[in-house]
Amino acid sequence: MAIDRRDFLKIAASTALVSFPFISKAVASQARGHVVVIGGGYAGATAAKYLRTWSNGGLDVIVVEPRSQFVSCPLSNLVLGGNKNINDLTFGYDLLKSNHGIDWVNDEVVSIDAASRVVKMQQGELAYDRLVIAPGIDFMYEQLPMLQSPQAQELVPHAWKAGKQTVNLRKQLENMKDGGVFVMSIPKAPYRCPPGPYERVCQVAFYLKNHKPNSKIIVLDANAEIISKKGLFTRVFNEMYAGMIDYRPNSSVVDVDVAAKVVKTEFETVHANVLNVIPPQRAGKIAQIVGAANVDKRWCEVDFLTYESKLVPKVHIIGDSVSAALPKSAHMATSQARVCANAIIALMSEKTPDASPVFANTCYSYVSDKMAMHVANVYRYDATKKIMVPADGGGVSEKPSELEGNYAQAWAKNIWPDVLT
Amino acid sequence: MVFVGFFVLTANAFADENAVATPHIQTLAASCAACHGSQGNSVGGTSVLAGLDASHFVLQMIAYRDGSRIATVMHRHAKGLTVEEINDLAVYFAQQKRITAFIPPNQRLAKQHGD
Q1: Cα(A388)–Cα(A381) distance, rounded to whole angstroms?
Q2: Which of A181, A200, A222, A389 could pair with A252 as two cysteines, CB 3.0-4.6 Å apart?
């Protein structure tokens, strides 16, 4: 798309001359009905808010979420580095509910009758016209059954859903002796937050370098190489944290001795003082219960114009559970949520959803207390392939910087009110 | 500059509190909220886009696209959008009311929180 400055202004002017076709008098949305949203994370909370806002209150929206608080995964690696407190990332849902008239059920979904369109919870049930499922991820403990119990996760936390395990892992690092070994394993992609594990390595390295400089980090990556921001992370590992990080690709964890903190790959046995196994992942439980997780029996195939499940009618799936060549990030989850909300409003007022959705994804990783780097893309719907594809111009930072560290803070400070107020 | 001036004139002529964007532009504009706040009302750290002059918005986006304005990340977004989308976003954000946005208050992580 080579357009020089002059052409651009001409096009801008001619567009203006013709008119702004999108501008018309506001009409109250015709959409009426009941939407149930399962999950109050980045995707679910955003969907609920925008379903209410863009339907001008025409749609009744009920969120079902067992947790009473929202804890942000983005920035949670900074807790491990000692650069954030978990309470800095913890919020309530009160403003979201009261500002937008969203009904809220603090309960867990046990089953869904998609034929009669009813969600069954521990206590009571809810009928819906359309259902939005934003269940995040589930861990595939059948591959690592020894890590399934809460007791095992006390000793070997995943800390891959921000909260108590994040705090636990931080405490373990604080209690580790200088000269200790932190071992972290990364599952095969796709998993939640592609650059997240490598950011975590940087945060732990930052802490150890400053407080326990004789310590070592061993990274067991099931992937053949660093799968996000590879050049940038490689440089940071080798330069900023030289001599501290032993990165081992093609290293899938096959067994864990939880009590001894010993982990086995196909090739070797590795001893840890602090062990963080991030298990393999699939779509959240609710997506499996409803029978929408068809891709490799892990992820959910959706229509990218509406996020409606390809398998279960009137059930929409958004966020990390979606099968797509899109990063499973918080910004992506909110972008999908808005396209989905807009499409549901169109469908429920007998209109056609936007045939060419476009959205952005910006994902920052912190490599120290202050320095961050990005990967950013605009994604556009490809009508031939029927998927979202990256547009021209996307890419990663040239190098980490404090300036981008400030922008990463600004990202969090702005996405939180967008999702939660 | 003639073109730009004309653009602004037209945009203002159409500016209307009750005007609504197409779902396409509404959704795209909301995608900017991650860094620029809801309806472009940033809480800080990035530009407030709400109520921003439409021609200024367009000129900045052109400058990001052609590299004449140095950016950390905005060139990636500017290059991924069509000319029409940039124009429509300019009008959309110009129409938004400026309000003081705020970060929701933090809470202490509850003991019973899962995970």
Answers
A1: 4
A2: A222
